[in-house]
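FAQ

Q: What does a record look like?
A: Structure on top, sequence underneath. For example:
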């Protein structure tokens, strides 16, 4: 599938995946189906989806490929390009939430040891969603090289790939909206991560050249075209921007601050106090249920920590709304400034990030041609994203590599030269080929 000037997946990538499935299953190569599930970026709307906020997103031309054939019986057999070993289970097993099993057995999950958990989680979600599966799959999964654990939502892309594969193998038709909720069941119900619907929505709803806007309270979404794109093709020969990804070299969170679920709990506590103070304590404690004027009237009752979380939510929600207008009018300068402000609020108010990523964010702000930059993902590891003027992209990439090596020589040395900075194109939505 051709998207912009880049082709992803390439025929070579398709061939690799199909041949791996043939080698395991003995099927004909023409029988292999491939679930294509792209990674996503979130220019604006950081850390507010779990509170029902409004977010923006788009996919990129990198992601997950899951080659598969129906197994013909109840077995599931999976292999991975990134991780060793095989994953085996049966679709007639009743799955229990993984995080509850880990808590009961006092086990600390390691994402690189349990790489099959997302496949098991997909089965759990489909069972919980009332979907009847009569056969499993034999599959081979791989991600774009070097981009796992990079803050591009590889986990949601993996979960969606498994959902699409199980549904395809069993001839089950599921709408993108329903698959958003099924993937949320994988993350929330099976793995115990209290995130929202940003990642799944972006991967399942995006369209090339558009900014996807999602109201995480109502689940409504809109696709907003950039004025220099029309019908999937640019009106102008040159693209108005490039998407730059700058990698930190961090594969695991290097921070002593509380993790993702703790931040969610703090936001909910802030909402509970604000709602109770305003006489609306019966509402679910989510910040989307707090009206802006109620927040302004009662924010003084929040202790400092909770006040910062609430400030991030309300200011970020406003940035998204302003950003949609800037994007729709083609004003990349204003759009970029809002992205950078989002990054600053993530550091100061949401208090995520670690020193290497914060340094990388600041370097990007100084780089030539950068409209705006922020963390990609939670900000505890991975990469930063930036929108860059095309004519200055090469100069920006060179600047980032050199400056990051100065402040983080050890981490920079773990990055493979040019791979420290990657340019991507906007892409479409997940599907089965």
């Amino acid at each position: 599938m051709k998207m912009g000037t880049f082709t992803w997946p390439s025929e070579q990538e398709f061939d690799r995946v199909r041949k791996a499935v043939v080698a395991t299953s003995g099927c004909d190569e023409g029988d292999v189906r491939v679930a294509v599930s792209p990674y996503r970026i979130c220019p604006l709307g950081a850390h507010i989806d779990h509170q029902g906020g409004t977010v923006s997103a788009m996919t990129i031309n990198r992601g997950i490929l899951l080659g598969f054939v129906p197994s013909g019986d109840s077995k599931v057999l999976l292999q991975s390009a990134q991780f060793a070993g095989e994953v085996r289970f049966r679709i007639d097993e009743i799955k229990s939430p993984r995080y509850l099993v880990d808590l009961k057995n006092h086990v600390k999950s390691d994402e690189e040891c349990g790489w099959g958990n997302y496949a098991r989680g997909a089965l759990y979600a489909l069972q919980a969603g009332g979907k009847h599966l009569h056969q499993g799959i034999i599959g081979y999964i791989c991600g774009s090289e070097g981009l796992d654990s990079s803050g591009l939502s590889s986990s949601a892309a993996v979960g969606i790939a498994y959902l699409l594969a199980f549904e395809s193998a069993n001839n089950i038709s599921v709408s993108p909206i329903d698959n958003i909720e099924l993937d949320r069941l994988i993350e929330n119900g099976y793995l115990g991560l209290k995130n929202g619907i940003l990642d799944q929505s972006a991967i399942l709803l995006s369209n090339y050249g558009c900014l996807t806007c999602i109201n995480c309270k109502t689940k409504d979404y809109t696709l907003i075209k950039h004025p220099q794109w029309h019908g999937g093709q640019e009106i102008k020969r040159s693209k108005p921007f490039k998407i730059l990804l700058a990698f930190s070299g961090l594969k695991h969170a290097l921070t002593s601050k509380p993790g993702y679920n703790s931040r969610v709990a703090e936001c909910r506590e802030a909402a509970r106090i604000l709602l109770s103070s305003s006489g609306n304590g019966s509402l679910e404690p989510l910040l989307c249920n707090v009206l802006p004027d109620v927040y302004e009237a009662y924010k003084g009752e929040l202790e400092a920590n909770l006040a910062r979380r609430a400030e991030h939510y309300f200011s970020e929600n406003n940035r998204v709304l302003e950003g949609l207008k800037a994007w729709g009018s083609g004003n990349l300068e204003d759009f970029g400034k809002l992205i950078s402000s989002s990054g600053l609020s993530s550091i100061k108010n949401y208090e995520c990030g670690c020193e290497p990523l914060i340094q990388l964010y600041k370097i990007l702000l100084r780089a030539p041609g950068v409209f705006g930059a922020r963390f990609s993902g939670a900000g505890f590891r991975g990469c930063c994203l930036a929108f860059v003027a095309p004519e200055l992209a090469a100069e920006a990439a060179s600047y980032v590599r050199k400056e990051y090596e100065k402040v983080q020589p050890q981490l920079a040395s773990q990055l493979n030269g040019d791979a420290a900075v990657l340019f991507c194109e906007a892409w479409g939505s997940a599907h089965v080929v």
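Q: Is there anything notable about this one?
A: The first strand starts at residue 2 and ends at 3.
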